[in-house]
Structures are given as structure tokens and as C-alpha cells.
Amino acid sequence: MTDAHSLERDAPITPACFSLLAIVLLGTRFVQGFIFWGGASRRLFYDFHEIAGVDHAVKLDFEAAGFVANKLVHALPGALWVQAPLEWTLQYPDLILASVWSWTFAELAVGLGLIFGLATRLWAFVSIGLNVALMLIFGWIGLHVPR
């Protein structure tokens, strides 16, 4: 006599299930790719201002009020496990500037890799790392944990 659990386990997965899973994963890959592409492109291609006759991206200009790293100051109270490294990084402007540019190019590479399907597994793992880092930095805004 067979029980219900063995019937479920022995039921074959149909090709239609794999096709549906593939479509869902393809959609997820595109959405995640465009999210990262959007993050990088907002810094690289939009919102310029002129300094001494040269256009500079506002979000990548250390002297501009719209500099993207200014968000880190507001994220500090909620950055649970990375508060000390963030405070240390904010003390060194050159390090912050290099970090912002590195993060921007990482987002650009992940976005384009996922959108075009180039080295998809590699970029998927990198996107997981970027998402975890963003969650650690910005995920708990408003929650203050006493030391």
C-alpha cells in the first residue's frame, strides 16, 4: 500500500513546469538587471551641473549636495552590523569617492550582465552580494540599536 507522500515524490515534473520556471527566472533576471542598470545610470548619465565649463554628474561629485554618499550619513543609525566600517569609511573622502565609483561600475556590470545574459551565474552571485550589502547598510533605517 502506498501513502500520499510517496505518490507526490514519485510524480514526474512535467516539461511545462520547467518552461514556467524558466520564464519566471528570465523575468527575475531582467527585473534585477534593470534595477542595477537604473542605479548606475542615474549616477552616470543624468543630472549634470557645470563646474568651470565642464559637466559633472551631481551624484558622483563629492562637493555637490546630491552626492550619493550623503545617504550613508542618514543610514548610519540603522546600519546594524556595518556601522563601524561605515563611520571609518566616511572619515576618508578619497576612500568614499573610490567606493562610490566602484559601486557604480559594479552595478553597471551586474545590470548589463543580467540583462544580456553574459556570465549570468557570476553576476547573479554578485547581485546577491550587492543586495545583502545594501540591506545591511539601508535595510534597517529608523531602527536604532543601543550599544
Reported for the largest beta sheet, the result is: 2 strands, antiparallel
Structural class: mainly alpha
**Number of strand segments:** 2
Order of helices and strands: HHEEHHHH
Instruction: Kindly report the average pLDDT value.
Output: 81
The order of strands across the largest sheet is: 1-2
List keywords for this structure.
single chain; 147 residues; mainly alpha; two-stranded antiparallel sheet; 6 helices; elongated
Characterize this entry briefly.
By secondary structure, the protein is mostly helical.
Explain how this protein is built.
Helix 2 (15-44) runs antiparallel to helix 5. The model has no long low-confidence stretch (mean pLDDT 81). The chain has a domain at 38-138. The protein is mostly helical and 147 residues long. The protein is built from six helices and two strands, in the order ααββαααα. A hairpin with a 2-residue loop joins strand 1 (48-51) and strand 2.
Topology (elements, then pairings):
Elements: H1 4-10, H2 15-44, E1 48-51, E2 54-57, H3 70-75, H4 83-90, H5 93-116, H6 120-138
Antiparallel strand pairs: 1-2
Helix pairs in contact: 2-5, 5-6
